[in-house]
């Protein structure tokens, strides 16, 4: 896993869902559909695989090393192996969100 200085839309980019039914959850971009939408999946955060508009996503600096279109089971293994949730919890962004919920 790589922490990137620039937040480009790319396969493997972890995103925070800002609104909609899955607001407040993390998902990873599995495939880019077009200039407005991406296929996302959140294997450990409860987000089912679906297409989402980029307006509903806030890109994080966390990038997973995964191939395009990775299946959900293998994505879950990669998520756990690369400790995405642990990396997210250590960011100041996640800590601010946690403090607001208190």
Automatic annotation (TrEMBL):
Task: Give the record's keywords alphabetically.
Answer: Ribonucleoprotein, Ribosomal protein
Please state every residue range assigned to the domain named KOW: 11-41
Keyword Ion transport attached: no
Q: Name one GO biological process term.
A: ribosomal large subunit biogenesis
List, alphabetically, the CDD domains matched.
eL14
Q: Mind telling me which Pfam families this protein's record contains?
A: KOW, Ribosomal_L14e
Recorded GO CC terms: cytosolic large ribosomal subunit
What is the originating organism of this protein?
Answer: Magallana gigas
The question of whether Ribonucleoprotein is a record keyword is answered with yes
Output one GO MF annotation. structural constituent of ribosome
Question: Where do the Large ribosomal subunit protein eL14 domain residues begin and end?
Answer: 49-102
Q: What is this protein called?
A: Large ribosomal subunit protein eL14
Q: Looking at the record's lineage, which domain of life comes first?
A: Eukaryota
* Similarity section: Belongs to the eukaryotic ribosomal protein eL14 family.
**What PANTHER family would the database entry show?**
60S RIBOSOMAL PROTEIN L14 (PTHR11127), LARGE RIBOSOMAL SUBUNIT PROTEIN EL14 (PTHR11127:SF2)
